[in-house]
Design goal:
By secondary structure, the chain is mainly alpha-helical. Helix content is about 75%, strand content about 0%. It is globular.
């Protein structure tokens, strides 16, 4: 229970829906329970759980990649628009900015998205991300650089040239 909220937050940032994130968390905690005897005390428990959550999420994304593309095309082609109540301009801009960033993060390849989620959004340091994903720290830094470059390019139309500091 202590780690459920952070596990869900990571899963939600990796997965396209709340339901998929819930499935990831449930599967991850089941796997953690089944393999708790394999937990080495040299790692932090939360880092070990992040690794399990990421592995489950990445496995599900690999299996659902085709279906996700279909759903994305359907939403785009159908012109699905959310119906929001009238909001002050600054609040609308903040909501839209958050949506653009979320869409850009979700568009990243899963390996890059995982690094951004853990490092930039969850605040883990490079060593913790390395441990959670089971990759060298140099790979973490490389993927982070590539992910940020892709995000910058993807978000340029929305935030380029603005002096808002966002």
């Amino acid at each position: 229970e202590k780690h459920a909220e952070s596990a869900y937050r990571v899963a939600r940032r990796m997965m396209p829906s709340h339901e998929a994130a819930d499935d990831v968390v449930q599967e991850a905690f089941l796997r953690a329970h089944q393999s708790v005897g394999n937990f080495r005390r040299d790692a932090m428990l939360d880092t070990w759980l992040y690794r399990i959550v990421m592995n489950v999420a990445l496995n599900q994304l690999r299996g659902q990649r085709r279906r996700m593309r279909f759903l994305d095309r359907f939403r785009r082609d159908a012109g699905v628009m959310s119906r929001r109540p009238a909001m002050p301009s600054a609040a609308v801009e903040q909501v839209e900015a958050r949506e653009h960033v979320q869409e850009a993060v979700m568009a990243l390849p899963p390996a890059l998205r995982a690094v951004v989620v853990l490092f930039d959004l969850e605040g883990l340091d490079c060593a913790e991300v390395s441990s959670a994903l089971g990759i060298p720290q140099g790979t973490v830094r490389s993927r982070l650089h590539n992910a940020r470059r892709q995000l910058r390019i993807r978000l340029e139309p929305y935030f380029g040239g603005s002096e808002r500091g966002e």
